[in-house]
Amino acid sequence: CKLLMKEVSQTNGKIFFDGVDIGSIANRSLGILYLPGNPSLFLNKSVKYNLEYPLRIRRTDKNQIKDAVLSVAEKVGISDLCVWVKKLSGYERKKAALARGLTIKRKAVLLDDFFEDSTETEDIASVLNLFTDSITVIFTSCPHLACGNTVVLDGGRVVYQGDSQTAKEKVSGLGWLNDSLKEL
Questions:
Q1: pTM of the entire structure?
Q2: DSSP characters over the chain
Q3: 21, 55, 56, 133: which is deepest, by most CB within 10 A?
């Protein structure tokens, strides 16, 4: 994630995304949305300000910004755009981050422990349905979140890639992972 988002510089080789070397384009032109478990928002600003931000820095027309913000707020279920972000619960902040991410068309969505507090598969499915035109990747250590094409890593090595049910069985055989999950 950090390499794709250019938070960490690559030491050798090249990283291609959608056929383009990411070293040659600006972060905001990548078309990648990164949503960690604790998303960054402007805490001393309103939800509306946070949703408008990606569009304002792209110099989008004010009427288009207004329409986009209202549309994504409705999709995600945000009713009060004037509340300050610091007054929101963690769940509400995630909703605001989702809405902000929806204001711009994305090629890929990286959900990094975004669902760590959720056990409701319908919550997860509703989020994934928001990004049907994007490649969506869930990074998690929670086996119950596995869905679709799943990759299991052990010490940085791929030990399984394929359907989610077999992946869950593969994870149950990794003792170190099961021990760490029990501690959670």
A1: 0.77
A2: -TTTTTSS--SSS--EETTEEGGGS-GGGS-EEEEESS----TTSBHHHHHHHHHHTTT--HHHHHHHHHHHHHHHT---SSSBGGGS-HHHHHHHHHHHHHTS--SEEEEESTTTT---HHHHHHHHHHTTTSEEEEE-S-GGG--SEEEEEETTEEEEEEEHHHHHHHHHT-HHHHHHHHH-
A3: 55
Looking up tokens 């359907």 gives 163
Q: Minimum mean pLDDT among 136-140, 151-155, 179-183: which range? A: 179-183
Q: 53 CB contacts (<8 Å, ≥6 apart)?
A: 42, 100
Q: Residue 16 and residue 25: Cα distance in Å, rounded?
A: 11
Helices 90-102 and 62-76, packing angle to 10 deg: 130
